[in-house]
Design a protein that fits this description.
With about 325 residues, this protein is mostly beta strands. The protein is built from 3 helices and 20 strands.
Length: about 325
């Protein structure tokens, strides 16, 4: 009977993935430092958990400095809604940009495990609700905050940061993209969603990776746009989405982050729905991505290797 069940599962695309146990963090990000990988994401009401790995396969934790949390409520801005962290190193300190109370804040630590703190508990400047921060450090030394503003939809914006990361430079905020294509709003809602931005510079071209549709929609998916400048204008890839339920056979694929592994190859960490019937708690997965097919007349395409997709195994219980 067991063999027959396994056979039936193999006949159903995505069935094995749906049954697989995994780490359960949404809006995940992986930060590589000192030969280790640190995984953070949405999923705890008091802040952000962190898990560690040496090989992206075996994970330990949570290992945050405060009962598993790298950032804990009370140490930095926010009373709830701790979403979508990004961790990076800048001038010998570690920083976490994150969402709380539907605003963006940046906290600092001496370790990737935290505790991330603010001397003054404050958010960044900006009009209305702002979520999903991603700080991009350009080759000319300028720093840009890509983020989402809730204004007639979830729209992706960019603003230049002050060099000390204390705030954005006033008057620099500019809209990048919004959900104006059919794959980005399959429910045809009056509030189209584009969110979860990540930016990388490749061959002097800027690639903006983002997710579209409401995260509760089974069609939540990932695409990208390109620009010759960090400000835009942005041209969306005609082959979007590059990561979707049609490609991975699992619902709700999106809102992740790009990073390089120890071999110098790009990986994209993301979340999916927990099953075909339920959205949460969302599961954390990993997929390899690469730049392919470019020439003098056409820029490289960002491609996801669907065969490489896998969920991240949870730590073994002691």
């Amino acid at each position: 009977m067991r063999q027959r069940l396994l056979f039936l599962l193999l006949l159903i695309p995505g069935a094995i993935c749906a049954q697989h146990n995994s780490i359960q963090l949404a809006d995940p990000t992986i930060f590589a430092d000192g030969g280790k990988y640190y995984l953070y994401g949405t999923g705890h009401p008091q802040g952000f958990l962190v898990y560690e790995s040496n090989d992206l396969k075996t994970w330990t934790g949570p290992t945050g400095a405060k009962s598993g949390l790298a950032l804990k409520k009370g140490d930095a801005f926010g009373n709830g809604g701790f979403w979508a962290p990004q961790v990076f190193k800048y001038k010998n300190s570690y920083f976490m940009a994150y969402t709380a109370d539907e605003q963006i804040a940046i906290a600092e630590s001496s370790s990737p495990q935290g505790p991330f703190r603010q001397k003054v508990l404050k958010r960044l400047s900006g009009e209305g609700k702002q979520i999903d921060p991603y700080l991009f450090f350009d080759t000319d030394g300028r720093i840009y905050l890509y983020h989402v503003r809730l204004k007639e939809g979830n729209r992706i914006y960019v603003a230049e940061m002050k060099p000390d990361l204390s705030d954005i430079i006033p008057g620099t905020a500019r809209e990048c993209i919004y959900g104006d294509q059919s794959w980005e709003n399959t429910a045809q809602t009056p509030w189209p969603v584009t969110e979860g931005p990540t930016v990388v510079k490749h061959n002097q071209l800027y690639y903006l990776i983002y997710s579209a549709n409401d995260f509760r929609n089974k069609d939540y998916a990932v695409g990208f746009a390109t620009s010759a400048t960090p400000w835009g204008p942005w041209t969306k890839f005609k082959g979007n989405p590059i990561i979707s339920r049609e490609k991975l056979h699992v619902n709700g694929t999106g809102h992740g982050d790009l990073f390089k592994d120890k071999d110098g190859k790009y990986q994209y960490v993301l979340h999916t729905h927990v099953s075909n019937e339920k959205v949460s708690p969302r599961k954390t997965g990993l997929i390899s991505v690469l730049f392919t097919g470019g020439n003098k007349q056409r820029p490289d395409t960002l491609t996801a290797d669907t065969a490489s997709f896998r969920f991240l195994d949870p730590p073994e219980k002691p």
